[in-house]
Design brief:
There is one protein chain. The chain has 247 residues and is α/β, with parallel strands linked by helices. Strand 6, helix 10 and strand 7 form a beta-alpha-beta unit. The protein is globular. The strands form two sheets. A five-stranded parallel sheet has the order 1-7-6-2-3, sandwiched between helices. It has a two-stranded antiparallel ribbon with strand order 4-5. Helix 6 packs across helix 8. It folds into two domains: 37 residues, no CATH class; 206 residues, 3-Layer(aba) Sandwich (Rossmann fold). The protein contains eleven helices and seven strands. Bound molecules: zinc ion (ZN). The site of zinc ion has 7 residues, from helix 2.
Length: 247
């Protein structure tokens, strides 16, 4: 039904770009002009960049993740897009965001010569976030990616077992410590290859906690996918050079 309505909207040219509000024939919901200006990442794993910023004790866990892939860098346009999706009542944007993520995933797996994973699982959201937003942003993206890529989705596969402070209020080391051991998996995933999906990857701490939870229930490999990577480096940080090479 939604597909049919989208096609009708395109025929009538009332399918507006989410950024500039101009009518577009693009099925992605982002017109070609706006799409070219987005800070798209090269479709390749940036695990080495996460590793260069992680505290020593977390390195072995990050190395256990096979691929870390994002669609965009978390710059102003993407911050606006994801903020409007999560906080602005635009849960229907999950479809266009999942289209972007799925396309990036196909390119990235082709680049690395790997097969797509067996199952997808969403990063869990807290009950208070769910009550505030009325939906689970990463959950909807995961559901849509499963549909688009024809991969099984493990519904409510992960849950938080303790409260963690919002990332902004705590330091880098503390962010890792708070999250380690904070997530559990709800069912066995023996010998399955899994991708954990979140909206934003900052230090990789939350995604690492999720992938460790999935490994504990028997997963053979874990990849982490997100819409945006937010590196948050200082200006003097030379690894920004690594990052610019990713785009
Ligand atoms: Zn546009």
């Amino acid at each position: 039904m939604l597909n049919w309505l989208t096609h009708l909207a395109i025929i009538l040219q009332s399918n507006d770009c989410v950024f500039c509000q101009q009518a577009t024939r693009s099925l992605t919901g982002i017109c070609d002009v706006c799409s070219e200006q987005l800070p798209r990442m090269f479709p390749r794993s940036y695990q080495h960049v996460l590793l260069s910023h992680a505290p020593q004790f977390a390195a072995h866990m990050l190395k256990r993740q096979r691929l870390c892939i994002s669609v965009w860098r978390y710059r102003q346009s993407i911050r606006w897009l994801l903020n409007r999706y999560k906080e602005g009542g635009n849960s229907h944007w999950s479809r266009l965001l999942a289209l972007q993520l799925s396309a990036q995933i196909i390119f990235a797996y082709r680049y690395h010569g790997l097969a797509l994973p067996d199952c997808l699982v969403a990063m869990p959201c807290t009950e208070s976030d769910w009550l505030q937003r009325g939906f689970h942003p990463a959950g909807l993206i995961t559901y849509e990616c499963g549909r688009l890529l024809n991969i099984e989705v493990v519904k409510r596969g992960l849950y938080w077992i303790k409260r963690v402070e919002k990332q902004k209020r705590v330091g880098r080391q503390q962010r890792w410590l708070n999250r380690l051991d904070a997530i559990r998996a709800t069912r066995a995933l023996s010998d399955r290859s899994i991708a954990v999906i979140d909206d934003i990857c900052t230090t990789g701490a939350s995604l690492c906690a999720a992938s460790e939870a999935v490994y504990r229930v028997g997963a053979c490999t874990v990849d982490v996918w997100s819409l945006a990577y937010n590196p948050r480096q200082s200006r003097s940080d030379t690894s920004l050079l690594d990052l610019s090479a990713l785009e």
